[in-house]
Automatic annotation (TrEMBL):
UniProt feature coiled coil, ranges: none
Source species of the chain: Mytilus edulis (Blue mussel)
InterPro entries for the chain: DUF4371 (IPR025398), IFN-induced_PKR_regulator (IPR052958), RNaseH-like_sf (IPR012337), Znf_TTF (IPR006580)
SMART domains found in the cross-reference section: ZnF_TTF
Pfam families with a match to the protein in the record: DUF4371 (PF14291)
The TTF-type domain, residue ranges: 32-115
Protein name per Swiss-Prot or TrEMBL: TTF-type domain-containing protein
Length: 440
């Protein structure tokens, strides 16, 4: 339907309205012609004229009908043509509730069109953005506390972490105490959140902690994988893995990715994976699963480094052999620390070396389990350092216990023993062979 609105703001319009003949005995001809009056559009700014149907419509009621009221057919669904009583009917129509409701809707539509910032959806979007920004700031405070504990190697949980009984323990754990510290330091957004949020929306429970830690893990893994894919020499990498038993007596498989960036080697811990069994087949399947989930192609792996145990180095069912079935170019290398340890164990068949290693073991036990002896050793070293120049002072005041499986730790202990023995020989002037811990 075609509408045309006439008002005083359109003086150029020269359209002539069709007339309608009415019976009027006061006229000599017996009838009288009436038509739509142009001034009505100035008095009643809500009406519109339809050229095709030669009638008036109420534009607000036509475009934004109010279904909660009973409305007349004229002016809304059918054109109005009673020119004789038009002025009175228009005044009456302007006072009705449904017309005023439609007028308010039309005015709101016009305002929203001219001022988009006042629209409801824009206002809701702006409010949602503020809520999202505030929630992100709250999560940022919580995540920073998690990252701090992770970087410093601090446990998150305390004696009671679920807040079921606030009087059961004053220590809620490092994570929640760190959140309280942030509040005391002036984090007003976090303070308002913790004081006003619902109990099931604090995002500080152990379940939320685990979810956020999982998000951090995925973020770190994505950063590592992106760095590997962006290498100049190609997305090639090597893996290192070993299993260890945690405090809950679960076998944890640690997976490390090794690659080079501009000629400098980098080693990044990719993941810890729980292992119910530590057979070579099971460990190899865990490795393949972890690499695939992280987004790394096993075909691009060029080296694998593990220890020399049977489940790792087995010729047929070892982890290295099973992994090479998926990545044929992944060459297996023994762990150098284990290699040195095996060499040292083989050489311990020589009587003198066996006595020396046994003396190291007994010496570590001699000092490790006696605080009194440790304090005596520290005092002796302090007295010796007071009489020496800076470059000849003994750097370490504690004797490390002898490690049974790692050559690096054995070497540290042996090197420390050499320093102590040289110090004793320098003071006495007579070299003495070390036979046991009693000769130290």
């Amino acid at each position: 339907m075609k509408y045309r609105l006439y008002c005083q703001r359109e003086p150029h319009i020269s359209f002539k309205f069709p007339s309608k003949t009415y019976t009027d005995k006061r006229r000599k001809s017996g009838n009288f012609k009436r038509s739509c009056v142009r001034e009505w559009f100035s008095v009643f700014n809500f009406i519109s004229y339809s050229v095709s149907q030669d009638g008036l419509y109420c534009l607000p009621c036509r475009l934004f009908p109010d279904s909660s009221h009973r409305r007349p057919i004229k002016l809304i669904r059918e054109p109005y043509r009673d020119w004789k009583h038009a002025k009175e009917d228009m005044k009456m129509h302007a006072t009705t509730d449904y017309h005023q409701s439609s007028m308010a809707k039309l005015e709101a539509f016009r305002t929203a069109h001219l001022e988009p910032s006042s629209r409801i959806d824009a206002t809701l979007t702006s409010g949602n953005q503020e809520i999202i920004q505030r929630n992100r700031q709250i999560l940022m405070s919580i995540i920073k506390s998690l990252v701090f504990c992770g970087r410093q190697g601090i446990a998150l949980r305390g004696h009671r972490d679920d807040d079921t009984d606030k009087g059961s323990s004053t220590n809620k754990g490092n994570f929640k105490e760190l959140l309280n510290f942030r509040v005391d330091a002036g984090d007003s957004i976090l303070e308002k959140h913790l004081n006003s949020c619902k109990k099931n929306a604090t995002y500080t429970s152990k379940t939320s902690q685990n979810h956020l830690l999982l998000c951090l893990k995925n973020y770190i893994q994505n950063k590592i994988v992106s760095e590997v894919r962006a290498l100049d020499i190609g997305p090639y990498y090597g893996i290192q893995c070993d299993e260890v038993t945690d405090s809950s007596n679960w076998e944890q498989l640690g997976l490390v990715i090794r690659y080079t960036v501009h000629g400098h080697p980098k080693e990044r811990l990719l993941e810890f994976k729980e292992c119910e069994t530590i057979t070579g087949v099971e460990i190899a399947s865990k490795l393949i699963e972890s690499l695939s989930n992280a987004g790394l192609d096993t075909q691009l792996c060029r080296s694998q480094t593990m220890d020399g145990t049977g489940n790792m180095s087995g010729k047929y069912n070892g982890c290295a052999a099973k992994f090479r079935e998926h990545s044929p170019k992944a060459v297996y290398y023994y762990c150098s620390s284990h290699d040195w340890n095996l060499v040292l164990c083989k050489s311990s068949k020589v009587k003198e070396i066996h006595i020396m290693l046994d003396a190291l073991k007994q010496l570590g036990i001699f000092f490790r389990y006696s605080p009194k002896r440790c304090r005596r050793l520290e005092k002796c070293i302090t007295d010796v350092n007071n009489t020496r120049e800076e470059d000849s002072k003994i750097k370490s005041a504690k004797f490390k216990i002898f490690c049974e499986t790692r050559w690096v730790e054995k070497f540290t202990t042996i090197q420390l023993l050499i320093v102590y023995q040289q110090s004793v020989q320098k003071e006495d002037g007579i070299p003495k062979p070390l036979q046991s811990h009693r000769d130290f």
